[in-house]
Amino acid sequence: MDLHRGNLYWPKTLNNVPRYHKLNEVISCDVLIIGGGMSGALCAHTLSKYPLKTVLVEKRTIGSGSSSANTGLLQYSSDMMLHEFIQKLGEEKAVRFYKLCLEAVNDLQLIASELPEPVDFIRRDSLYYASSKEDIPKLQKEYEALTKHQFEVEYLDEEKIKKNFSFEKPAALLTKGDAEINPFKFINNLIQNASQKGVEIYEQTELHEDSADEEYVYFHSEQGKIAARKVIYTTGYEEITFAKKFGATVNRTYAVVTSRLPSFPNWKKNCLIWETQRPYFYMRTTNDGRIIAGGLDENKMELSPDKSTIKKYENRLLQKIKEHFPKYDLDIAYSWVASFGESNDGLPFIGLHPKRDNIYYCLGFGGNGTVYSMLGAKILKDLIFHQSNPDADIVRLDR
């Protein structure tokens, strides 16, 4: 499955990317992680702190799948607003899920601060604006829900938005607690750190499951074999056949990265920006003076077949940026189309396979994939060691 096409930005930001051998022997392990993207890297990092033999296997190279097309926005707010989650899940579960996502952003900051190399993690506010006046009541409901449950949020009217930005919108919420990151640097640093702590890493190794007994699940690759006591699938959108059974779809989305600017006037604290309209447009800045923008999602699983389609959406995204910041002198330096998965209920798929012992999944379907991967790594660690986690029910596969 092609996960992205076009000219990616993140791989250009890291020199001397670490490389790992193919699996070419017969091994056994306590935990096998299948997939070397964000979810796999965070699971490997989390488990590297414990006395287990952990192995991670990636069929391409580390971080080269969907994660390299990740735009690096870390938000605790979901594509589904808190008040909408409350209607669907009930107040207790909905609020707890939002709290878990905020905790996950804090956890990501701590991990980033402990890594030996910088991964461009920066805390940011988020501006979530009403795309039209009709969306104002929706934002007001969300402001009430966030305020009631003690999330830091400010309601901005049209005048306040105009004062801090070079565009006009009817209303917005300014939330605190979000962040940005370079996902490619982060994944490669996580994997390198886990490797130094004893996690065995293999690239260019595609695994196929052979069989299972009460003690092990058995896999083979072209040149090797693995017997694993427990298995975590962190295969992202390539696990769509499985995820569809529980309610998920894979669509396609577009992203661009601009040329550099010396500064970003009329952009309050370089906050993350997104909107209520669906599909939504979003944008952020980078630490080297660029703007990343994305969105314009399409309900099509296959990626755009030719460069002209990517070019068309590149122009549309550039136009959207200039509508917000007309005085910025910008060109597009990178652009791509990528697969994007989301669940029907807005929650990720994390937990034990409902019909198989010792098989776990960490699938961060949704706009907050990195945040979901972080909370997933913590939940799975508890399930592996203690067979339970107080929050596992919210994101279980057969909910």
Automatic annotation (TrEMBL):
InterPro entries: FAD-dep_OxRdtase, FAD/NAD-bd_sf. One of its GO terms (cellular component) is cytoplasm. Pfam families: DAO. Residues 30-383 form the FAD dependent oxidoreductase domain. Coiled coil: none annotated. PANTHER family: PUTATIBE OXIDOREDUCTASE, SARCOSINE DEHYDROGENASE-RELATED. This is Glycine/D-amino acid oxidase-like deaminating enzyme.
